[in-house]
Structure formats: structure tokens, C-alpha cells
From TrEMBL:
Protein name from the UniProt record: Histidine--tRNA ligase
Phosphoprotein among keywords: no
Subcellular location: Cytoplasm
EC class: ligase
Alphabetized NCBIfam families for the sequence: hisS
Domain (Aminoacyl-transfer RNA synthetases class-II family profile) ranges: 33-325
Catalytic activity, EC: 6.1.1.21
Gene Ontology BP term (one): histidyl-tRNA aminoacylation
Binding site for L-histidine: E82, G83, T84, R113, Q127, E131, R256, Y260, Y261
GO MF annotations in UniProt: ATP binding; histidine-tRNA ligase activity
Family the UniProt entry places it in: Belongs to the class-II aminoacyl-tRNA synthetase family.
Predominant place of localization: cytoplasm
Catalytic activity: tRNA(His) + L-histidine + ATP = L-histidyl-tRNA(His) + AMP + diphosphate + H(+)
Length: 423
């Protein structure tokens, strides 16, 4: 029988990569907490309607990439492709905005998008993100960018650029839509198949096409259709970013792949990530989303960053922490009758450090070989004629000790090893 392979476009988190994964999640949660964000989590599956109405039919995510199925009760459900619509549903559904406003939440969640897998594009990926719900002040737009910026800085990732744009309000976009249609309709026959579809269902997305990039270059700009209040909102956001000393590029072609955005939209790009997959993260303001989901109109803004893409860059730049040994001490028994003593010693030693016991009937040299490979610092040999033997696996020095003294001997050896630059 052939061994079962993982589903295409998925990635296991193996123990070697786990410390980098934990480091990244801790860093995001820590920065978010310093800005007053609280943890939230939502179900991995939701009613399909949440995303059809929230993210929008006509987006690639909803039209082509959702994992949608009918459950045994005949309901259409979808594996979460993104976190903003579920978080808004959860926060407003629980009336959290009626206690205090705005509600600040952060999350770390897996997402599912049925896309063609390639470097940086998975069918299951994870995002860390924040949402501020219940406030339209442009200071919040700048705040969610600042949280992401500090997070990236805390990780120590270099070479990230902030691409910033404004998508105006609904009326601005209606006007802009007309001028996009006027520009693109005569070009219809020369457009790619996707763009012909976008022309009919979602003209703003025409700007995101890589194939028809030459048309995008000459397309009208949304910036020319902004009302005075939209301009003021954007000016206030850029002013706050200036105060926070966060550099950005005003990228007038940035449109984002989700329909709920209004006003601020942004992405964090990294040059080392190839082509269309160069965004480490993105976000923006979504003042119309709550209403789309059937709640009272409630403004919101947030960011989300791709965990796997961040880790790829962090590993390339040599800043991701590497896995340490599973345990500092390996107890290796010699002879069956030593197993009980080994277990007692392990129990006592675990007050001070991490310990595994190898009570198998394998030969001692095999046990020591594997203890060395696991990068443990010490091996404690139980059942030797001379008594308890404590062996430093790095220097290969060993000492004979007794059950009364073994705890202190282990502590002293671990301290010495931690201070020894050679080990
Ligand atoms: P998004 O730009 O679709 O935004 O996704 C955020 C990030 O998730 C991307 O920049 C990328 O790093 C990562 N990502 C997306 N798709 C994949 C994939 N197939 N494979 C690997 N990584 C991927 C959102 O989802 C919005 N909910 C962000 C937001 C929060 N807006 C407001 N608040």
C-alpha cells in the first residue's frame, strides 16, 4: 500500500519548525496586547452566506477559492477563507460593542483557500491579525498599521515596504466605476478571460490583473474621484503614520482582493517573496461590512499577516529561532531492574529541568548515540556497576554520583554547560 500523502497545498508543522512558529505567534500576541487587543477565536467553518455577503461574490476568493460543502443537515458551510467577516460576526453577535467602543481583538487562525498551490500560496495557511470594531477615527487605521509595523520590527524582519492607498467611500467608488467602465469597455476584446468577467461583475478588480498590466498602467485613478471627506480621512491617516515615523508608498493601484474595503487599504510587501505572492500581509477599513452581514452599521479596520510567508522570510534572514533538544537530560537504563529507579529519578529531576527516560532494552551505546543526536546536554546512566553515572554529552566528561547528590550534580552541570561557550 502506498503511504498516505498530505492534501495538496498543505503543510505540516514539524517539531523542528515549531519554535519559530511559537516565536512568531507570541510576538504578534505580545505587540497586540501592548495596544490593548484581546484574543478572539472563531469556528473554522461558517455559513457560506457569511463570506458570500461579507467578502463579496465577484471576488476570486468567493467565486473560485472557497471550500464549500453541504453538511449532513443540508446547510451550505464553508471553511473560513479569511478572518475579518467571522470576527465582525462574533463581536457584533455577542454585542461586545455595547460594553465599550471600539472593540480591539487579535487572532491567530488557519484559513482555507482552494488556489493553485505554489511557493507562498497554500490551500491551508495561517494568519495573525487584529480588528478594531466600532470606531471610524483615522487614528485607528494608523494604529492597526502601527501594530503590524512593530510586530515586523520585533521579529527583526528587514526589507518590508508599506503600500498604502485609499479606496474612498461607496459614492467615490461608484463614480470611479463609471470611468473604469468607460476606459475598459472599448478594450473588452483584448482583455484576458478573467478581466472580461471582472468587467461585468467587479470592475475595481481589473486593476489587480497581472496579465493585462499594460492596460492597468493607463487606467483612470480612483484618487481623482475622491470626495473631500475621503481625502481628509486619508490625509489624517498619513499624518498619523508620519508621527509614528512609519514610511509608506502611496500606491494608487492597490485594490486588495476582498470587497469590503472602504477608505484605507494597505499591504506589506517583501521583495524576496516572488511575484503576486509578495504580500506578507494586508488590511484596511471596512465600514460597510457589518451592514452587509445584517448588523447595525458599525465601522471597522484591521490587518492580517500570513504566518507561512513571514516564516519563510524570517528563516531566509536567519532570525527564526531553531529547535532545541526535546529534553536537557536523558536517563539511560542498563538492565531491566533499573527502570523503576529511572522513573523515580526522572520524576525528581523534572522539578528542575526537562527529562526523558530511555528504559528500552536497547544497547547502552545506541541509547547514548540517540541522546547525543537529540542534542540533550546530559545523560544519566542508571544500573552501572559503579553507581549513577552523569555524562556530559558535549564534553564527554563523566562523574559518578549518588541518588542524594544527583539533583545538585545535574543542576551544576547544566549551569556550567549553559555558561560554556564551546557547548
Ligand atoms: P488577505 O490579503 O487576503 O487579507 O490575506 C492576508 C495575508 O494572508 C496575505 O497578505 C498573505 O500573506 C496571507 N495569505 C493569503 N492567502 C494565502 C495563501 N493562499 N497562502 C499563503 N498565505 C496566504 C485578509 O484575509 C483580510 N481578512 C485582512 C484584513 C484584516 N483586513 C482587515 N482586517
Amino acid at each position: 500500500m502506498t503511504p498516505i500523502a498530505p492534501p495538496r497545498g498543505t503543510k505540516d508543522l514539524l517539531p523542528d519548525e515549531a519554535p519559530a512558529w511559537e516565536w512568531l505567534h507570541r510576538a504578534h500576541a505580545a505587540v497586540a496586547a501592548r495596544f490593548g487587543y484581546q484574543l478572539i477565536d472563531t469556528p473554522i467553518f461558517e455559513s457560506t452566506e457569511l463570506f458570500a455577503r461579507g467578502v463579496g461574490s465577484g471576488t476570486d476568493i468567493v467565486d473560485k477559492e472557497m471550500y464549500t460543502f453541504t453538511d449532513r443537515g443540508g446547510r451550505s458551510v464553508t471553511l473560513r477563507p479569511e478572518g475579518t467577516a467571522p470576527v465582525v460576526r462574533a463581536v457584533l453577535g455577542a454585542h461586545l460593542d455595547q460594553r465599550w467602543r471600539p472593540v480591539r481583538v487579535h487572532y491567530a487562525m488557519p484559513m482555507f483557500r482552494y488556489d493553485r498551490p505554489q511557493a507562498g500560496r497554500l490551500r491551508q495557511h495561517a494568519q495573525v491579525g487584529v480588528e478594531v470594531i466600532g470606531e471610524r477615527d483615522p487614528g485607528c487605521d494608523a494604529e492597526v498599521i502601527e501594530v503590524a509595523w512593530r510586530f515586523i520590527a520585533d521579529l527583526g524582519i528587514d526589507g518590508v515596504s508599506l503600500q498604502l492607498n485609499t479606496l474612498g467611500d461607496k459614492d467615490d467608488r461608484l463614480g470611479y466605476r463609471q470611468s473604469l467602465l468607460a476606459y475598459y469597455t472599448p478594450l473588452r476584446d483584448s482583455l484576458c478571460e478573467d478581466c472580461r468577467r471582472r468587467l461585468d461583475v467587479n470592475p475595481l478588480r481589473l486593476l489587480d490583473c497581472k496579465k493585462d498590466a499594460h492596460h492597468v498602467e493607463n487606467a483612470p485613478l480612483l484618487g481623482d474621484h475622491l470626495s473631500a471627506p475621503s481625502r481628509e480621512h486619508f490625509a489624517a491617516v498619513t499624518g498619523h503614520l508620519g508621527d509614528a515615523e512609519i514610511p509608506f508608498t502611496h500606491n494608487q493601484r492597490l485594490v486588495r482582493g476582498l470587497d469590503y474595503y472602504a477608505h484605507t487599504a494597505f499591504e506589506f510587501w517583501h521583495t524576496s517573496l516572488a511575484g503576486a505572492q509578495n504580500a506578507l500581509g494586508g488590511g484596511g477599513r471596512y465600514d460597510g461590512l457589518a451592514e452587509q452581514l445584517g448588523f447595525a452599521p458599525t465601522p471597522g479596520v484591521g490587518h492580517a499577516l500570513g504566518v507561512e510567508r513571514l516564516l519563510t522570510v524570517a528563516v531566509d534572514q536567519g532570525i527564526a529561532p531553531r529547535a532545541g533538544p526535546p529534553a536537557q537530560v536523558v536517563i539511560c537504563t542498563v538492565g531491566e531492574e533499573s527502570a523503576a529507579t529511572a522513573r523515580t529519578l526522572a520524576r525528581q529531576l523534572r522539578d528542575r529541568t526537562s527529562v526523558v527516560s530511555d528504559v528500552s532494552d536497547r544497547r547502552l551505546d545506541r541509547k547514548l548515540r540517540d541522546a547525543g543526536r537529540s542534542d540533550a546536554t546530559l545523560a544519566l546512566l542508571v544500573g552501572m556497576d559503579e553507581g549513577l553515572v552523569l555524562r556530559n554529552l558535549r564534553t564527554r566528561q563523566q562523574q559518578v554520583t549518588t541518588s542524594d547528590r544527583v539533583l545538585d550534580a545535574v543542576s551544576a552541570e547544566l549551569l556550567a554547560a549553559a555558561q560554556d561557550p564551546r557547548t
